[in-house]
TrEMBL record:
Residues annotated as domain ABC transporter: 12-246
Transport as UniProt keyword: yes
Annotated source species: Janibacter indicus
Pfam families per the UniProt record, alphabetical: ABC_tran
Keywords: Amino-acid transport, ATP-binding, Cell membrane, Membrane, Nucleotide-binding, Transport
Sequence similarity: Belongs to the ABC transporter superfamily.
Keyword Cytoplasm in record: no
The reaction(s) this protein catalyses: a polar amino acid(out) + ATP + H2O = a polar amino acid(in) + ADP + phosphate + H(+)
Enzyme Commission number, as recorded: 7.4.2.1
Name of this chain's protein: ABC-type polar-amino-acid transporter
Enzyme class name: translocase
GO cellular component: a single term: plasma membrane
Membrane topology annotation: Peripheral membrane protein
Length: 250
């Protein structure tokens, strides 16, 4: 399979996306197509624009030129449509961002009831299924602070999944976790990948990238420098910047 394109049906399509923060050209002519069911791992040095890329796909950031479509539809600028379309893009951050004063169950049911207009009974049933899937069903009536970081992050994944997103974005989901909790979160993500979820994952966990990624995208200084299969990328990176990066982390 040629690694610069996808053989899957395109789901997330970025075309010539440019964004600045003041003088900083943080996203430079970004072209990226993520196919339905595909897992794309984004790696690169700190400050290269990986988080900005995720946030721009979810319209938490604006961009100046180019286009981004999800399942053929552009993300609208604002309003109700944006809330609904944004729900198609699940996002899990480094910090778990659970609602501290709501129970785990309520954290997972809130969005589906509000945005997806699900009944409480339906939302709760689905929430319990998802909490079981990520292994925290026993914590449903607790509050976030009563859970470990790994458990909270698994709840954050369940909460995103409860919205039935078309694509899940993960921005360094394990980098705030104690080492012993990293694998329990990566295992949930690996399982999710196996269910056919479309995923864009920013991570420094190269084991996960090798295991779960269909493609690796290497970013540096606001550019996508290289796109490759994990096999190609880790054994034979083409660019000097990728070689340099891998030399530092492996
Ligand atoms: P990464 O996630 O790859 O570490 P980021 O996307 O967070 O990179 O940041 C890319 C660059 O943009 C960095 O130089 C960072 O300092 C800058 N940056 C990020 N967010 C903002 C912002 N809100 N305002 C100004 N500069 C920002
Ligand atoms: Mg980042």
């Amino acid at each position: 399979m040629p690694s610069d394109t996808t053989t899957h049906e395109p789901l997330v399509v970025l075309t010539d996306v440019n964004k600045h923060f003041g003088q900083l050209h943080v996203l430079q002519d970004i072209n990226l197509t993520v196919g339905r069911g595909e897992v794309v791992v984004v790696i690169g040095p700190s400050g290269s624009g990986k988080s900005t890329l995720c946030r721009t796909i979810n319209r938490l950031e604006t961009y100046e030129s180019g286009s981004i479509t999800i399942d053929g539809q552009p993300l609208p600028e604002e309003g109700k449509e944006l809330a609904r379309l944004r729900a198609d893009v699940g996002m899990v951050f480094q910090s778990f961002n659970l609602f501290a004063h709501k129970t785990i169950l309520d954290n997972v049911t809130l969005g589906p009831m509000k945005v997806r207009k699900k009944s409480k009974a339906d939302a709760q049933q689905r929430a319990r299924e998802l909490l079981t899937r990520v292994g925290v069903e026993a914590q449903a009536d607790k509050y976030p602070a009563q859970l470990s970081g790994g458990q909270q992050q698994r709840v954050a994944i369940a909460r995103s999944l409860a919205m039935d997103p078309k694509v899940m974005l993960f921005d360094e989901p394990t980098s705030a976790l104690d080492p012993e909790m990293i694998n329990e979160v990566l295992d949930v993500m690996t399982q999710l990948a196996q269910t056919g979820m479309t995923m864009i994952v920013v991570t420094h966990e190269m084991g996960f990238a090798r295991r779960a990624a269909d493609r690796v995208v290497f970013m540096s200084d606001g550019q996508i420098v290289e796109t490759a299969t994990p096999e190609e990328f880790f054994t034979n990176p083409r660019s000097d910047r990728a070689k340099d990066f891998l030399g530092k982390i492996l």
